[in-house]
Write a structure and sequence with these properties.
Elements: E1 9-13, E2 19-24, E3 30-34, E4 39-44, E5 72-73, E6 95-96, E7 111-117, H1 121-126, E8 131-139, E9 145-153, E10 166-172, E11 179-182, E12 188-191, E13 197-200, E14 206-207, E15 212-216, E16 222-227, E17 232-237, E18 243-248, E19 255-261
Antiparallel strand pairs: 1-2, 2-3, 3-4, 5-10, 6-7, 7-8, 8-9, 10-19, 11-14, 11-16, 12-13, 12-15, 15-18, 16-17, 18-19
EC number: 5.1.3.15
Keywords: Isomerase
Catalytic activity: alpha-D-glucose 6-phosphate = beta-D-glucose 6-phosphate
Length: about 260
């Protein structure tokens, strides 16, 4: 965990007394992550503007998952398996690693915290694989938010396991009809509104005129969400997560959401 005298990393109490970590970057951007779920619930730029959406109906009380922000889907995304939807990592209490591996020496001015999750005996009954999940949440010098996941197989017999995973990110946007997503043109997608039938994206960008729930396949490392009303662009860069989900429930006052999974 990165710490400085100006409290760039602070562990404190959040809603309903749940523990959370606040990251403060020197230029004024901030992020907060709850130990319950390893869940990022806030990301603000240097002007104090909130960049993530958290529902006003979110219940910060276990075992209910927090609604909004960046939920972690592990070891299962959606209903693609035998577990409850999106797995159990978002419903578990993580721990802070007070002595994490450092960043490479050529990176400076980054504020970060490492959270760890290991399976409980109850977890092993429903998903019999031992693991250590390390989540690093980082704020860069320009206010960039970076999440890095490392999942280590700790099975004593060396038996491999497979999993699906997603950062189920909710971005804060204005009128959804003023939002477009670029970078997914000409790609194939599975339409969750039509029993995951496969189609090819025809438009030069994704716009929203009705509910959208799609899994885009083999996506590029860079995707952009343009919010014309707020004059704001989210540039999403990813590595190791080939597919992207674009979902919006067609509520103009809500959000557009993009997440990445494998």
């Amino acid at each position: 965990m990165s710490t400085t005298e100006n409290k760039s990393v602070e562990i404190t109490k959040g809603i309903n007394g749940l523990d959370k970590v606040i990251l403060r970057e020197i230029n004024g951007s901030t992020a907060e992550v709850y130990l319950y779920g390893g869940h990022v619930t806030s990301w603000k730029n240097e002007h104090g503007e909130e960049l993530l959406f958290v529902s006003s109906k979110a219940i910060f009380k276990p075992p209910k998952a927090i609604r909004g922000g960046i939920p972690l889907c592990f070891p299962q995304f959606s209903n693609l398996g035998t577990l409850e939807a999106h797995g159990f990592a978002r419903n578990r209490v993580w721990t802070v690693d007070i002595d994490p591996p450092p960043f490479p020496s050529n990176t400076t001015n980054r504020v970060f915290v490492d959270l760890l999750l290991k399976p409980t005996e109850e977890d092993l009954k429903i998903w019999p694989h031992s693991f250590e999940y390390r989540l690093r949440v980082t704020l860069g010098p320009a206010g960039d938010l970076m999440l890095t996941s490392r999942i280590r197989n700790t099975n004593t017999d060396g038996k491999p396991f497979t999993f699906t995973f997603a950062y189920h990110t909710y971005f804060s946007v204005s009128d959804i009809s003023e939002v477009r997503v670029e970078g997914l043109e000409t790609l194939d997608f599975l339409d969750n509104m039509k029993n995951r039938e496969r189609y090819t994206e025809q438009g030069d960008a994704i716009t929203f005129e009705s509910e959208v729930d799609r899994i885009y396949l083999s996506t590029p490392t860079k995707i952009a969400i343009l919010d014309h009303e707020k004059k704001r662009t989210f540039v999403i860069r990813k590595d190791g997560l080939p597919d992207a989900v674009v979902w919006n429930p067609w509520d103009k006052k809500a959000k557009a959401m993009t997440d990445f999974w494998r």
